Amino acid sequence: MAAGDPQILDVSEEDRLRADFYNFLGLLLAAPPSQMLLDQIAGLSGDDSDLGQAIKALARVAKVTNPAGAEREFTALFIGLGRGELLPYASFYLTGFLNEKPLAQLRADMAARGITRAPNVFEPEDNIASLMEMMGGMIVGRFGAPASLEDQKTFWSRHISPWAGHFFSDLEAAENSVLYASVGTAGRVFMEIEREAFRMMAE
């Protein structure tokens, strides 16, 4: 939605927590974590739910991870010599190539919602970190008014659902994943929760 839309929607506590988790995943997938972020992750606690267990596991690994180790892992996974172990882009997961139709469709939807790429970001917009950040921003209204659940569902179904679960599963199993294996588990479980929540909307 364009900024200044007069129909401002209240954002529930549940939606704020959803947005926080999307932003958390986006932060971890955009760059290696600092010591401050690792300390914050190490302090997280979870309940007995699948997501709570994944968060507990992530906290345990963060306690024994230092920034240099996290950076080596991030580089091996996502950058590498020429390319990393994983290519975290919708176009690649859906077509086998970068900068394909899924990216063009995303750019059109971003333009329609008034979402623009930050000037210091040079990655294609269909990378997983950007999509997590976009979804979190739409929920709480960072790009204008908060998106309705129906609009969230439309964006999620079009740009995240077809591939993010596969990506997070791959991240869990990646040869170079240690800290990021736990990030993969948390992301995969969260995508399953979102899928079920959006499915229930249709009933």
From TrEMBL:
Parts of the chain that traverse the membrane: none
Keyword Glycosyltransferase: no
Record Gene3D superfamilies: TorD-like
Keywords noted in UniProt: Chaperone
Pfam families reported in the protein's UniProt record: Nitrate_red_del (PF02613)
Keyword Transmembrane: no
PANTHER family xrefs: CHAPERONE PROTEIN YCDY, DIMETHYL SULFOXIDE REDUCTASE CHAPERONE-RELATED
Full protein name: Molecular chaperone TorD
Originating organism: Ruegeria marisrubri
Lineage: Bacteria, Pseudomonadati, Pseudomonadota, Alphaproteobacteria, Rhodobacterales
